[in-house]
Amino acid sequence: MSSAPPSRPWRAISVRLTVYYSAYFVGSVVLLLGLAYFLLSSSLQRKDREAILGELRELAALYRGGGPTAIQDLLAAQEASGASEPFVVRVLGSDHTIRFMWKPSPLALDLERLRTAAIVPEQDWVFLSLSGPDTPALEITSVALADGGRLEVGGSTADRDEVLRHFRWVVLLALVPVLVLGIAGGALLATSTLRPIRQILRAVRAVTEGQMRVRVPTRQSGDELDELIFLFNGMLERIVALVEGMRSALDNVAHELRTPIMRIRGTAELVVHSDAPPEVVRQTLGECLEELDQLLAMLNTLMDISEAEAGALKLRAEPVDLAVIIGEVAELYQYVAQDKTVTVSTSAAPDLWVTADRHRIRQVVANLLDNAIKYTPSGGRVEIGAVRDDRGAVIRIRDTGIGIPSLELPRIWQRLYRGEGARGQPGLGLGLSLVRAVVHAHHGRLEVSSRPGAGSEFTVIFPGEHVGQDSQDAAATVQLSKL
Ligand code: ADP
User: Is residue 4 in some structural domain?
Assistant: First the structure.
């Protein structure tokens, strides 16, 4: 038996699923938060810049009317009334000298920094930190003035930096539960998804240890795993049935072989140890041969049944006219029937073509007719007919014989089973098993109804369309896939 692959828990599907799911979940959350951060930051920046541009336009208009003094007056008045705007202003002359600078009082900006700051190109934005590199910055833009000078207006980014810093903290804090939730969710998902697989694994382990009765519980969820469990349980049922069938067949065969072999041995021993004349020896050997032939026939039939049940019986599929087969078999059995004074009548519809193995179908009809004659007392009747109806091609064999008790009916198809009524009649109890195996091998069906004392009726149904002889391919050997 091959050994189990080494167990590597970190490579278990559940661990990998948990890692994938958690990584996907956390990654998605980080991506979403990053997008939110970017949108918030750009929207705050746009708002700040709109305010700065508004101020720039307003002051430029003022400049056109009254020069730098007009701006200076307005800003001073605003400061005096406590309603100053939070903007930094710098006016440069055409020679780039600073003509005027302004900062609102609450803003912690060293004016010297503003004085030495580089000139801001038009339609551009320049950042100027208030003191050190980590302190809030000023965001400045400019517009050219009619006199060749330049008006620069800047606003602090402190407010939006504060909002964004706050947002970053919140995100960082939120990431901790998100991470925990992601890993826990992943683990839960992986565990619950793989539960049926683990149950199947347990069941397989139990089966390999010989516990054939174990089954995986179904969940009634109707998903693929449920289907897998259903098929798995079905497969186990089938294996159990096959193993039990084989075991009981083996028991039966051993039992059935023992008696004739003992008989042959006893006879041979008797002859060996006696001074019997040659003709007696010859006669005894003849009897032994007959017994051996019967044994061989039984073994061959058993092998045919096993092959058919295992799906390995080779069939020579060809167009077969059931009416012809029935005629041939009935003719073969007419003397047996006459001997027993049993009337056999046939009524097969002509041209009843099916695709089948001629030899095997003949075996089916012969076995059923043999039984019908065998289990019908003298003076009885056997009718054998074939028709095509909506179920397909149907062969029906009816007798007025001893019938089969209802308790025996389910067992008559078992190998080596012989009913009460078969006592005193020749037979091995293999005829109907072979009939069933061959009919199933042709994807056909069997039905039986019987009343003890009144007779039995066996029906063989070959489903499928009518096939004419002309439309048939040449005989082909088909490997059976199904019983
Ligand atoms: P056997 O060699 O005993 O005939 P079969 O497999 O052909 O074995 O049949 C199994 C049993 O089914 C028989 O022993 C008999 O009890 C019952 N049986 C089969 N066919 C008939 C029938 N036409 N009438 C009554 N009993 C039947």
Answer: no
**Do residues 181 and 29 touch, judged by C-beta distance below 8 A?**
no
Range of the domain at 104: 13-163
Q: How many helices (H) and strands (E) does the chain have?
A: 8, 13
Statement to judge: residues 343 and 453 lie in one domain: yes
How far apart CA 466 and CA 468 sit, in angstroms, is: 7
Residues 74 and 151 in one domain: yes
- The reply to whether ligand 1 has any atom less than 6 angstroms from the CB of 372 is yes
DSSP letter at 398? Answer: E
The conformational region for residue 153 under phi > 0 = left, psi -120 to 50 = alpha, else beta, is: beta
Is residue 233 domain-shared with residue 380, that is, in the same domain? no
What's this model's pTM, rounded to 2 decimal places? 0.54
Q: How far is the CA of 257 from the centre of ligand 1 (A)?
A: 20
pLDDT band, residue 466 (cuts 50/70/90)? very low
For residues 285 and 372, state if they share a domain.
Answer: no
Mutation pick for ligand 1 pocket among 342, 363, 370, 371 (CB with most ligand atoms within 8 Å): 371
How far is the centre of ligand 1, averaged over its atoms, from the C-alpha of 364 (Å)? Answer: 13
Q: Which of 365, 412, 430, 449 to mutate to test the pocket of ligand 1 (most atoms within 8 A of CB)?
A: 412
Residue 8 lies in a domain: no
Domain membership flag for residue 172: no
Residues 245-285 have pLDDT tens digits of 778 778 877 887 888 899 899 988 888 888 888 888 888 88
User: Coil, strand or helix: which one is 177?
Assistant: helix
In a shared domain, residues 266 and 327: no
Instruction: Give the tens place of pLDDT for each residue, 84-139.
Output: 788 999 999 888 899 888 888 778 777 788 888 888 888 889 888 877 666 678 89
Does residue 284 share a domain with residue 325? no
Q: Quick one: the chain helix, strand, coil %, rounded to 5?
A: 55, 20, 30
